[in-house]
Specification:
The strands form two sheets. Strands 1-2-5 form a three-stranded antiparallel sheet. The protein has a two-stranded antiparallel ribbon with strand order 3-4. Strand 3 and strand 4 form a beta hairpin. The protein has 30 helices and five strands. Among the domains are: 156 residues, no CATH class; 117 residues; 38 residues. The protein is 70% helix and 2% strand. The chain has 711 residues and is mostly helical. Helix 11 crosses helix 27.
């Protein structure tokens, strides 16, 4: 009897590996892995799903285990047929191939690093690159070399080796080119609007009491008999308003300068910084062009700050003059009311913009959708537009193609924050403004009804406002990713948070136990222990020095014992507090600090890779938002010259100083530190010493044999 265990069905169409993993066909998956040694287990289909992700998504964990085991075997067995064939292709290929690079990055990063050496030459001073257009990516972002490196590996430990490819001069140069052609313009556009949104939110929070003061002045009848100084003190804009005005002007002026970062205009500006000519000339070469590009960027920043200061002083001076020389209080109140409306309108529009940007990033996970829209007819295109605006934001979270975006905590936090600002917080904010204006216009109502209506309303409003404020400030840290030296801080913080989680497991056990113990001992007598939640808070803050022992002793050992506790019970409570302080402060906190120090020290060796990885992820995210297809990417890589001539952007062919790429804020990995160099030499000497000892032993054994024969 022939067993069909590891064979495909005879009367059906043979399944591919992805189909078998999707269907949970364990026998078929095993058969393919055992008999087809050249199968690519890392390949993704058009939806961006790999065979492992299909198996995990459909809960076929046995199939996923087979894929992981195959990946592990290939990692350990350098003579695997797939790896041998891959190395041969990498050695023989002279042109850059995106698919070959992806396979190499996933399976053999070391050999792929050598493959990249074919596209760069160096002399004593400069690098010269070739085929940077192909490495930049001519099709879509999902098939580019950068996406292949940053894509998750099947074996997590292999990810570090793959990310080391970013340290290669070729990929460093590609990152700089992407940043110059589209990254800088898009990044500064988002940064300006985010600063505007952040400062607007801060201004709303700091000036929220203005509404209450206006309402109180109406109730107290003070509007008719007040001076300008009283109005300035009670309802005039605070210092944050002046900062907000500067922010608006700065963002406006910054947007006026952003067109200079477009490739054509930036090339002209660079030329102007070189010889004072604002024009493009074919085959005109600027020596040391990086120096003049830096000067061009510095000029844009300097002009933006200068014009922002001039316009801000003029606007604030005009507003102050109007306010001081107009005795009509209704006019002043109208100005304040307009300020309340305008600030939140700006916040709402900024939140809408960033929500649209996030949706564009989600759509960028499926770049083929742009091709489908371009190739569709008018009616079909209208359906696509309707789908992207109204249906896609709702259903994309449940679609496998976009799972990577929604797997990020930061991305989910951004969407939640923007949606809260756009819908519930906006409604409540405008409702509060309208209630104040209605009161100022003479409307009367029941104070009791108003109190009952707004008590829960204000609590919810302030709670959402506090959440959005904290969230926006925390999310601002993501703009550090493009900093090649400070970008490593974000992944290190993520690593440290794992230590905090482990610490929380130990801490939670003691915290819960001590909470219940103190609540039981004090029997709800002290104010700090009347409820379990109050007891939890009191015991939690002991970790930060608030142990309230002095109050306990002062109340317990006096004739008027307000705690109603016996002296033995007080001593038990004091002993428990001593144990609490020793465990929490001395033991657990020091343990957490030691764990965090160890984590930072362990990852400090990967400093350059982590900084480059953060920078690369930021560039890739911006590229994903833009959603370039093969046509738009081709146009992006060309520079139009006068006369209608369009050629490849000179940035792809510039000679780059070696120092510019090897020292991005760190010492080059090609120049190891003294400790590593000495350690390497010691290992070499140990090997040589062992070889000499083996030879001496061999000579000694030979001499003994000869002596035995002669004897």
């Amino acid at each position: 009897m022939v067993e069909l265990h590891n064979r495909p069905e005879a009367n059906s169409e043979p399944k591919s590996l992805s189909e078998a993993c999707k269907d949970g066909d364990y026998d078929r998956v095993r058969y393919l892995l055992e008999n087809d040694k050249m199968i690519d287990i890392c390949k993704e289909d058009e939806s961006g799903m790999s065979v492992l992700e299909y198996a995990i998504k459909n809960s076929h964990l046995d199939c996923a285990a087979l894929i992981r085991q195959e990946a592990f075997d290939r990692l350990k067995n350098k003579n695997h047929p797939f790896l041998i064939a891959l190395r041969n292709k990498l050695s023989a290929e002279t042109e850059f191939d995106e698919e070959l690079f992806r396979q190499g990055a996933e399976n053999d990063p070391e050999e792929t690093y050598k493959y990249l050496d074919k596209f760069v030459k160096s002399d004593k001073y400069d690098y010269t690159f070739t085929q940077l257009e192909n490495i930049f990516g001519k099709n879509t972002v999902k098939t580019s070399a950068l996406e292949s490196i940053l894509n998750e590996s099947i074996i997590e430990s292999q990810m570090d080796d793959k990310l080391d490819l970013l340290k290669h001069p070729v990929l460093k140069r590609v990152l700089d080119i992407k940043w110059e052609l589209f990254g800088a313009r898009k990044y500064f556009q988002q940064l300006l609007l985010y600063i505007l949104m952040l400062m607007t939110m801060t201004n709303i929070v700091s000036s929220n009491h203005t509404q209450d003061n206006m309402k109180n002045m109406k109730k107290e009848g003070a509007l008719n008999f007040t001076t300008i100084e009283d109005v300035e003190k009670e309802i005039w804009m605070q210092a944050s308003f002046f900062i907000w005005v500067f922010t608006i002007v700065f963002c406006f002026v910054g947007f006026m300068h952003l067109p200079h970062l477009e490739p054509k205009n930036f090339a002209k500006l660079t030329r102007w910084m070189y010889d004072g000519k604002y024009k493009l000339e074919y085959n005109h070469v600027i020596p040391q062009v990086d120096v003049f590009k830096d000067k061009a960027l510095a000029k844009l920043l300097r002009d933006t700050l200068l014009w922002s200061l001039i316009l801000t002083v003029a606007i604030l001076g005009l507003m102050y003059y109007i306010f001081r020389h107009n005795d009509d209080f209704s006019y002043k109140l109208t100005l304040v009311e307009a300020h309340l409306y305008i600030t939140f309108t700006v916040l709402w529009l900024c939140a809408l913009y960033f929500l649209v940007q996030e949706m564009q990033e989600v759509i960028g996970e499926d770049p083929w959708i742009y091709t489908k829209i371009d190739e569709s007819l008018s009616l079909t295109r209208a359906w696509w537009i309707f789908y992207l605006i109204f249906l896609f934001p709702i259903f994309s979270k449940f679609m496998a193609t976009y799972r990577r975006y929604y797997s990020s905590f930061t991305n989910n936090l951004q969407i939640v924050t923007y949606l809260i600002i756009l819908v519930p917080f906006a409604f409540m904010h405008y409702y509060r403004i309208l209630s104040v204006i209605k009161l100022l216009n003479g409307s009367k109502g029941s104070n009791n009804n108003e109190k009952e209506t707004f008590e829960w309303f204000d609590s919810l409003y302030f709670g959402m406002g506090a959440f959005c404020t904290i969230s926006l400030w925390m999310l601002s840290l993501q703009y550090l990713e493009i900093n090649k030296t400070a970008g490593y801080l974000l992944p290190i913080v993520q690593d440290v948070m794992h230590d905090v989680w482990d610490f929380g497991i130990f801490y939670g056990v003691f915290q819960c136990g001590l909470t219940c113990a103190f609540y039981f001992i004090f029997q709800q007598h002290p104010d700090g222990y009347k409820t379990l939640w109050a007891s939890f808070c009191s015991t939690y803050f002991v970790m930060f020095g608030e142990n309230d022992v002095s109050d306990l002793i002062a109340n317990a050992y006096t004739p008027h014992n307000t705690l109603n506790l016996s002296i033995p019970m007080v001593n038990v409570a004091l002993g428990l507090r001593m144990f609490h302080s020793a465990v929490m402060v001395v033991l657990l906190l020091n343990l957490l600090v030691a764990m965090m120090n160890k984590t930072v020290d362990r990852n400090w060796e990967k400093l350059q890779s982590r900084a480059l990885t953060s920078y690369a992820r930021a560039v890739l995210r911006l590229e994903t938002m833009l959603g370039h297809n093969n046509v738009t990417r081709s146009e992006l890589m060309k520079l139009p010259y006068p006369g209608g001539k369009s050629v490849s952007n000179p940035v792809f062919h510039e000679r780059v100083p070696i120092q510019a790429l090897d020292e991005d804020g760190f010492a080059s990995d090609d120049q190891p530190d003294d400790h590593a160099e000495l350690k390497k030499k010691v290992q070499q000497l140990i090997v040589k010493n062992q070889a000499i000892e083996d030879k001496i032993k061999l000579v000694d054994d030979t001499f003994k044999e000869i002596s035995a024969k002669l004897g």
